[in-house]
Amino acid sequence: DPNLAFYQSTRQTFQQGIPYHEVAELPGLPYICIRIPTGGGKTLVASHSTGIVAREFLHTDQPLVLWLTPSNTIRAQTLATLRDRRHPYRQALEQYFGAVSVLDVDEARTLQRATLEGGATILVATMQAFRVEETDGRKVYEDSGSLMSHFAGLPAEALAELECFENGQPLRSLANVLRLRRPVVVVDEAHNARTALSFATLARFRPACIVEFTATPAGGEHGSNVLYTVSAAELKAESMIKLPIRLTTHAYWKELLH
Q: pLDDT tier at 243 (50, 70, 90 boundaries)?
């Protein structure tokens, strides 16, 4: 019960239990937020969180993880670091999983069942890539013969959860692969993805749980469920601010640009 678990956990962390805000589109789903200031290591914590969720909550070492970034620039950076076996983000993942595959949406549209069953699979994308009004989004929901292996011999209860043709056969789409595997969803800079459309998009993939990372969680009645928060002052006291910021003023804008 996410409501009870969240109340008990926050009572230990904050000395008072905080009510859990359930998302209407995702009833009963654990949907929590880790609040970390900009530059405080959100991606590193997200890498460790993925392993902890898989081990402690899903009891698997073969999770499918949908890792959502706020922009294509950050998506490219995240892909590069998670693929680099010398990088701390990738090494954090490998602490928990024997094998790790990191894919973008185009690669995932030919994803084979054997890959999912061979270790952890991390699909890095933007939220926009899954919206039907976008070109990439339409591809996610299209039938693809390359994904045929995922839909062989499915029991009736699994078929009932999938998007199907009129004849009852499941669409062999990436969206349906996600629905079958119930992914862990990691949302970077989550304050950009708390609209009704974002929640409706996530609901189409039947996630097992969602973990947000942001410096500015949403407040109010439908606010983020902040499980833990770190302040900038705490990071500074531990010498964990990434880089110094040095500002110099210039009287003339052309000089500034130069």
A: low
Positive or negative: CA dihedral 135, 206, 161, 158 = positive
Stretch 65-83: mean pLDDT = 94
Has this prediction a pTM greater than 0.85? Answer: yes
Which residues face 170 on adjacent strands?
164
Reference 67, options 144, 125, 154, 152; nearest CA is 125
> Nearest Cα to 207, choosing from 24, 42, 66?
66
Q: Where are the beta strands (DSSP E) in the chain?
A: 31-35, 64-69, 100-103, 120-126, 184-188, 209-214, 226-229
Tokens in use for 49? 């969180």
Sheet holding 120-126, edge to edge: 100-103, 120-126, 64-69, 184-188, 209-214, 31-35, 226-229
- 214, amino acid identity: T
Residue 182's pLDDT is 94
Give CA 37 to chain center in angstroms: 18
Secondary structure (3-state) at 209? strand
The CA-atom distances, in angstroms, between 49 and each of 108, 140, 206, 231 are 22, 26, 19, 19
Q: Residue 205 is encoded by which pair of tokens? A: 């993939």
Whether 82 and 102 have beta carbons less than 8 Å apart is answered as yes
